[in-house]
Request: fold
Amino acid sequence: MYKWVDEKGNTYFSDQVPPKHSQLRRETLSKQGRVVEITDKAKTRSEEALDHLLAALKQAQEKVINQQMYHDKALRVTYNKLEDLQNSYNAKLQELETEQKLTISNLKRLDNQLETQHRQAATHERNGEKIPQQLLNEIKVTEKESQLTYVKISQHIEKKNKVVEQFNSDIARYKQLTQSAEQQRMAKQKEEIRAANELGVYVCENDADCEKAWKIAGDFISKHSTSSNSTQPEIDSSKLIMGRTPDTDNDLSLAISKIDLGDRKQKLFLDIRCRDSSIGVELCASKKVQDIRVAFKRYLETSLAD
Reply:
């Protein structure tokens, strides 16, 4: 026996499901009337597309989490104590500084060489002589080497900054991983709050809280989406609100998805899209976009408190 409810709310019991109701959700009942199987309502193409999109967002998030776990494991295996990590950092920094000093020394040598060559050329001109072609060629070579050395110094500085940033991050993370259980719990909570702000994530306290936050999130999208055709979202469902595709390099399109965490818990995840261009990519990596992500959770919390 089957049980189902049509679009008008009418309930049916029958041993056969008519074709016009075959796409509806139905329950298979035993002889005692217990539910033994549930067949979900057939999904439309748009619903299937929405499920695929939500799955992709969740997969991307899982990838970030797995990368962090892998990096954490590598830190614990590579370094027995914090001092080892700091010594490694100091050694790497010393190596980079030595390379930079050598490059700067080479630049000074080239500058002196170029100055000597220019003096030689000036002497020929003062004597009314034509500057030898070989000397002109040497000046060009020295100038080119000098320019390349300037570029190399800039690259050294950039590389050094990245190493400093990475090691500072690793040292802070290593301290978290080696703290006491209570300290780890507090640090994890603090890290989750920071990550939630940076990623644009709001964790609902309950279903009622999530329903209110979802409506407010729609206002947030309308306020910060900048596409000229952003007055109406491209998708507006119970699990995804997505602004329309960016028209220009300076446009932002926001999307809010509702993700189930299990145990009747949900979170709202903010995604920001830019145009698929070099300027668009740069825009999505900018402080402006990061500020919008940080503002999302704060906006919801403030609005819910009012």
